[in-house]
Amino acid sequence: MTITRTDAAVTLPGEDFSRVALTPAAVELLLKLWERHGPLMFHQSGGCCDGSSPMCFPAGEFITGDSDVLLGSFASFAGPDTPALDFWMSREQFNYWSHTHLTIDVVQGRGSGFSVEAPEGKRFLIRSTLMDWPV
């Protein structure tokens, strides 16, 4: 079975390939959450527990800074003239995952209480594949 995906726009200087994508199931859930919460963003930290799953927040609710990397941006995600849905990762985590392409998917189960999908009985999940081009 082939999974079609939506690739994010390239955001890292000097690169010409997308590092992050969404599965159709992720797009469907995100559109539902966008309708309820407004513009959204992802942040992938690292470490144990819920920190190893991508967290989805209302845009701007999670403050990013110099210790974070913008890996991708899904422009006009919820329609024309809507803000982009950005995917951020902690710089430390990016150092470990710099050789992978990340696909955000959805699975049944309860994720973190801080991520907006938690009440839906679903959670976002990262599926990674090794990139076959130099990084």
TrEMBL record:
Name of the protein: UDP-glucose 4-epimerase
Top-level taxon: Bacteria
Pfam families on file: DUF779
Organism: Arthrobacter ulcerisalmonis
InterPro entries, sorted: DUF779
